[in-house]
Amino acid sequence: MKKVIFAFLMVFSAVFCAVAADKDYIEEVESLGYVAGQGLACEAQKYDTFEMLARAILISKAKSDAMQEEGMRIFNAAKAESFITKIRDGFSNCGQIADSFDHQIIFKSVLYGDGTIKMPDGKIVKPRQIYDSTLIYEKDPDLRNKMMKFYQERYQQIHQDPNYQKALRERQSKDNL
Question: Residue 164: which residues within 8 A CB-CB, separation 6 or more?
Fold first, then answer.
């Protein structure tokens, strides 16, 4: 009986640790996405380097292709949300944000050609399979403008949608009561 309980606890602990590690990974790539969106919106000088390092971390720390795919989806969603937030707040404090962005500790990381990363704390992160790290990010000098244009188009689309107009009128009539 003790052996069965011990075995159960060992399996439960392993599953719990795996779930916790997955959650940590997702939280990390989401945070990287939020920071990337701020850096892009505020035109930080080291944005492209950050994006490359963030993608390398996302790829190298993923335990599976499915986890990497989910990580990329979450990273991009957080980056877009953060970018849109900066648009909506009128790009306030962008000078300070860009300066802080360009002095992050992540820039002390070293990315090797096979996808291995030496983190600022000295920890080595090896990818589950070797990849060419020069192919993970292609600099696009017009990315910010493309994102601004996309945002403006979607904004117009939404505001011209009859369902949005109806919901807006209903909300305004409730607010006037």
Answer: 158
DSSP for 43-80? T-TTHHHHHHHHHHHHHHH-SSHHHHHHHHHHHHHHHH
Nearest-5° Cα angle at 35, 125 to 110: 30
The per-residue pLDDT for range 136-147, each reduced to its tens digit, is: 777 777 877 777
Domain boundaries, the chain: 2-103, 141-177
Contacts of 139 (CB under 8 A, 6+ apart): 48
- Token pair for residue 84? 């849109």
DSSP state at residue 125: E
Q: What is the pLDDT of residues 79-112, one digit of tens each?
A: 999 998 998 899 999 999 999 999 999 999 999 9
CA distance 67 to 91: 33
Closest CA to 36 of 174, 154, 147, 125: 147
